[in-house]
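Why this split exists: single-chain examples teach little about how molecules sit against one another. For that reason, every record in the complexes split bundles all components of an assembly together and asks for one structure covering all of them. Below is a record exactly as it appears in the raw files.
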Amino acid sequence: MSFFKQIFSVAWLSVRTIRQRIGSSAVAVVGIAGVVIVFVAVLSIAEGFQAAMKNAGQPDRALIMRGGASDEMSSGLAGDAVEVMKQAPGIRRENNQPLASTELYVIVDLPKRSTMTAANVPMRGIVPITPQVRYDTRIMAGRMLTFGTNEIVAGRGAAAQFAGVSVGSQIKTGQVTWTVVGIFEAGGSVAETELWADARVVQGAFRRNNSFQSVLVRLESPEQFTKTKNWLTTNPQLNVSVVDESVYYSDHSANMTTLIRKVGFGIAVLMAVGAVFGAILTMYTAVSTRTREIATLRALGFNTTSVVISVLVESLVLGGLGGLAGGVLAYVAFNGYQTSTMNFQTFSQVAFAFAVTPWLLAQGLTYALIMAFFGALLPAVKAARLPIASALREL
Amino acid sequence: MKYLPLIWKSLWRRKVRTTFTLLSIFIAFLLFGLLMTIRAAFSLGVDLAGLDRLVLIHKISLVMPLPESYKGRLQTMPGVEIATHNSWFGGVYQDPKNFIAQIAVEPTEFMEIYKEYKLPPQQKKAWLEDRQGAIAGKDIAERFGWKVGDRIPIQATIWQPKGGGTTWEFNLVGIYDGDAGVDKTQFFFRYDYLNENRAQGEGLVGWYIVKIKDASQSLKMAQTFDEMFANSQAETKTTTEKGFVEGFAKQIGDIGSIMIAILVAVLFTILLVVGNTMAQAVRERTSELAVLKTLGFTDTAVLALVLAESLFVAVVGGGLGLFMAWLIVQGGDPTGGFLPAFTLPNRDIVTGVALMVLVGVVAGILPAAGAMRLKITDALRKA
């Protein structure tokens, strides 16, 4: 019992006296906070990007593209083949209409607000049934476009990231002028980066005749996927590949998220090694300024274990403070920060928001404590080994 | 110079401390080197893009095709040295996750315009003779273990072959190399092979590259081209290749600022840690420094001694860190094809050295000034 009491009183003593070593303690806290900020911020980019792509997929939707096509951009489907696809079993029907959205996916150049340089903005040609298939989208300002006209609705992300996209504004692409009549939201998913126009008008403007690029179908239930897929892929009239929409989007974000994660973790690991060295230095400084104090404690009969633990506890307190401060700062500064990047697989822009998730914050804090622990190990051992007589004489 | 042993001795007075200070600075500059490399890589080799090369894309966007017939009209324009076109193939080699840029080109014109791609003469000849011939960059060839003579199957995503199926086969006839910064991860094959064998889209090309005689005329020429094709079926947008690459890099986002923000955080932290350590080192030695002064060392000499110590730590630690970064970068792109221009620019090495000196001076200046101002009598009594 007295053993624990000893540990506790020495640890409490070193925590209470942190204030007297405020300079070097602050260095440790700031150093660790810095690492945690960078760690959380970089990984929140990957989290946000992945969330935007993940939210786009619904388990009860399937995407039909030409066989061999890896994405909507490279796919192409003839108008008459599309009519056959609509007959596939398992597709949900409303008022006797199959919920199959025949779509085009093209790219237009619009200036990015942040740099005013041209960016590849995806434009999707849609049909009147599309809103029932893409049931997770909602017009949040203005109104839905009128089919048969040059009207478009823009995603929330597109309106935020690209110049000149707002209700009432006009967008010129080539020789066609479009009028933005509404802004829609889609749960923060990648669809919010898109501009939607009538597929028939897009066919004309982009010289696609009567062809589409993909068909997005809403299934009666997610379990119908295999049945629908088999029917479509074994039909001799068709040459298509069918993918689960959520699989499609997670595949298309895999490269990008892996890249960000690799770079992010690499930077964070190096910074952590640097921070551990920094913490070691700081704790050494702390121990050496307390040399006489520690020697006095030991002369009074406190055992070495309690001295070691007191140094570790002090460091963990500082590390915890740094981790918390870093996490809070990263959250305040970066959570929800809107930006956009290019997804190389479709050559088009994806707007997303940095996402500082609780899980990331927990990782950051754990990381801070690990750094603090390893930073304090050597100095703690040094403190315990000080020969009492000579230590008392020092500085 | 004669004080060197003195500086050396005081540095190693606390071995562990000096070692860890060196290591902290080492890591900081290792990071500096790597982050600057990433920053340069994300600018996609913009420094190498030519000002005398213009890129013509479809006005609506890069992915819209242009007619093959524009070549003849561009070629006859005054001031044009050579015009050619490229087409994006976008196929898949083995696994969709293997990202390889495959581009259909006209070999003769291509090699004339892109002198930075170095190809041995006999391989050039072989390429001109073989319609199915293709050349690959050194890095990509190493990655997949390709050798000249290999047959490389690629699955079509956009351009389906006329004969059915989805596979295109190419003969690897050459492997190109280039100076640092040249993208050695691309795969080039012949446009005539693509055009004759694709199921649809005959006569359509991706974009045009025009080499002009006088780089100073680039803006004017760009305007002339765009006017020439205005109100046609396919209007164009012309920029210098440098502007084009820059614009493309900007589409990825502002990686540069993110990297610099991280570095500021790193360097600031290092400055705090090293400054704190130097201050501690001077505090511990108060009596020693007083003795030095008693022996006749001037205030300035003491200031210089402490500063020299701090500078030494910063420059040696930082220098080794930057060298380490350089060594790692020599190993090439770690992401397997995403960052083709993976090199540490000379400009950033110079900046790095300047930063080391700055860190050394800033971290050492306060403790050094403190040491300079020490009064012998006070200092001796303090001990």
